[in-house]
UniProtKB/TrEMBL annotation:
Its cofactor is pyridoxal 5'-phosphate. The lineage of its organism: Bacteria, Pseudomonadati, Bacteroidota, Cytophagia, Cytophagales. It comes from Hymenobacter sediminicola. InterPro entries: Aminotransferase_I/II_large, LL-DAP_aminotransferase, NHTrfase_class1_PyrdxlP-BS, PyrdxlP-dep_Trfase, PyrdxlP-dep_Trfase_major, PyrdxlP-dep_Trfase_small. This is Aminotransferase. Its EC number is 2.6.1.-.
Amino acid sequence: MHLSLASRLAHTGEYYFSRKLRELAALNAAGANIISLGIGSPDLPPHPSVTAALSASTAQPGAHGYQSYQGTPVLRAAMAAFYQRHYGVTLDPATEILPLLGSKEGLMHIGMTYLEAGDAVLIPNPGYPTYRAVAEICGAEVREYDLTAVSGWLPDLEALAATDLTRVKLMLVNYPHMPTGTAADRPFLRRLVAFAKAHDILLVHDNPYGFILNETPPVSLLAVPGAREVAIELNSLSKSHNMAGWRVGMLAGRADVLADVLRFKSNMDSGMFLPVQQAAVAALALGDDWFEELNATYRTRRQLVLQLLHTLGCSVAPGQTGLFVWAAVPPDYADGYALSDVVLAEARVFITPGGIFGSNGLSYVRASLCQPESVLHEALQRVEELKKSRLSVLAEKLPSVSPEQPKSQHLNA
C-alpha cells in the first residue's frame, strides 16, 4: 500500500532537534561520549514541594480520570496569581487563563484556530522553528521579519508598516528572545502594540524566558497599556521551574480569543493529569528565593560556556537573557554549521548551529546552560585540546621562521 504525504507537510520536515538528538544517541551508543550543549532542557530538578505535591496527589480519589479541558479552577487561580504577583497583570482566572500541555501545543492550537490558506503570519528570523512549522501546517503564508545585531534583534516596525499587511492575521513575537537572549524594553513593546492596532493584527507573545538570568524584572506584554485588545501571551513552567517534561503551559489574555482556541483544543486532548496540575500550583507559589537560587547556578555555568565559546574564537554580545548563549562564529568558518560540525567531530561537543533558527542566524551558534558544572568543565577541556591540536597543525604548515621574525607572529596572523 502506498500512502501519499499530506500536502500540509510538503514544506515541513522533522523537527531539527528530533533528528539531531537521534544522531547524538547513535554516536553515544557507538561509544563517542558526546557532550550536548544543544537543547534547553533543564537538568536541575523542580522544587521539592512540587514533586511532593505530585506524589501526594496520585493517591487522591479521581486523580487518574479525565480532567477539565480548561484545567482546574485552582490551577487557573494560581496562574492568575502568578501574573499578578510577577507582572502586575490582573486576569480573570475563569475566562482569561487557559492551561496548556506546554506552550508548544498552544502555538499549534492558535494556528489551527485562526490560520488557513490565504492568510499570512509574521514570524521572526531568527526565531523558534516551530513558528514557521505551525504556519506552514496551517496552510498560511509565512512572512519573515528580520532581526539582526544591527537592529538590536528588534523588528523594524516602520519597514513592516510600509509593506502590504492586509492578509496578515497573526504576528509571533518572543521576548526575551530565543535564540539571541535579547530582552525588549517597554518603549518597544508600546510601539509593537500600536503597530498591531494600526494594522488589525493579533500579537502572539511567547514569553517563557523572563525569569532566567534576567537582570531586570520580568515583563508581560499584557502589562502594556492597550495590549489586552490586540495580544495574547503564552507562558510556561518548563524553563522557569525546571518542569520541561511535565508539559505545563498557559495562554493568557482576551476571553473571546481563549474561547476560540478552546474550541480547537477541546477536540485534541482530554485535560491535564490532575497530579501535574496540583504540582504546578505548588510551583507557581514559589517565591523569589527560588529564582535567585536557580539563577546563581546558571550564572556560574554561563561563565564556563562563555570560556568555551571564546576558546573557539566566537564573540558574545553582553546582556543576554535565558538558558542559552548566542555567539557569532569566527571568520575562519563559513557559518555556524561548519563550526558545529568541527566541534562535534573533533571535540565530541555539540553546539547548535544558528542557521536552524533562520537565515539571519547562519553566522552564529547557540550553546545551552543545561549541563552540570562538571560536564561543562569537561566540554571546555575538550575544546581547549581541539584548539591546541589545530594550532599544532597550523604551526607544522607554516614556513620556517627566521630569528628576526618570532614564530608567534605567524600564529597570530
